[in-house]
Amino acid sequence: MQNELELKELVREQYGKIASQNDSCCSSGCCCTSPNNNNIMAENYVGINGYNPDADLGLGCGLPTKFAKIKKGDTVIDLGSGAGNDCFVARAEAGETGRIIGIDFTPEMIEKARNNVKKLRFTNVEFIQGDIDNMPVDSSLADVIVSNCVLNLVPNKKAVFNEIYRVLKPNGHFSISDIVLTGDLPDEMRSAVEMYAACITGAIQKDSYLKNIEEAGFKNITIQKEETIILPDEILGNNFSGETIEIFKKNPNMVKSITVYAEK
Predict the structure, then answer these.
(1) Which of 25, 56, 103, 214 has CB atoms 3.0–4.6 Å from 31's, for a disulfide?
(2) What is d(CA 40, CA 229) in angstroms, rounded to the nearest whole number?
(3) How crowded is residue 15: how many other Cβ atoms within 10 Å of its Cβ?
(4) What average pLDDT does the structure give for the chain?
């Protein structure tokens, strides 16, 4: 596996292609897709208040804004905001008196999100380019932080949770959807760089993930939703050897999508 800077550049390159080509994650081949070419991790946003199809690139693995307890007038920050999907849903909850900030380190995503804001003529939604493990925002700024299938792409997850704690106001909270593991990936899977941007090999053990949250100082840590991510045989067969697939299938429930809530 590559070092931290190389992994970040890999993710930036892959997600830049998605934004530039106006493709979903699936059509660019950077995420795990089913035989019908749908993202096997993404949840359906259709019908949710604030949803905008132009901002939905199929990159998520949950619906964190659904569980985020956003109130009118809240300042909400979305980590890894992409084309703005969760930001626009958050705005529908926070209303015109709220403030929504999306942070993403991919220039092409920032440009796409800002274009979407212009189309929608929102004046209280902004997008900032920057790393979520070193956020370019003031401390104690946000009432709520959300993120959708992004922290698994960041090598230093402990730094991200420390930053979340810094940026949240006292008594603020977060709701984050992410990919975690409940078993050890086979060596071939773990070392597959091309699978890092697919959210699998960047994931860490669920217990370690929750421990990072606790060690950052958060309280009332709650799993709001959890489900198993099933990797289709097509994906496994196209990427890994028969021996690796056999090892992986001995624990087919090890890849999980979780939505976790915690308070400062």
Answers:
(1) 25
(2) 7
(3) 25
(4) 86
Task: Give the tens place of pLDDT for each residue, 176-206.
Answer: 999 999 998 888 877 766 565 556 778 899 9
- Confidence category of residue 28, pLDDT binned at 50, 70, 90: very low
Ordered by start, the domain boundaries in the chain are 4-263
Can you name the CATH fold of 4-263? Rossmann fold (3.40.50)
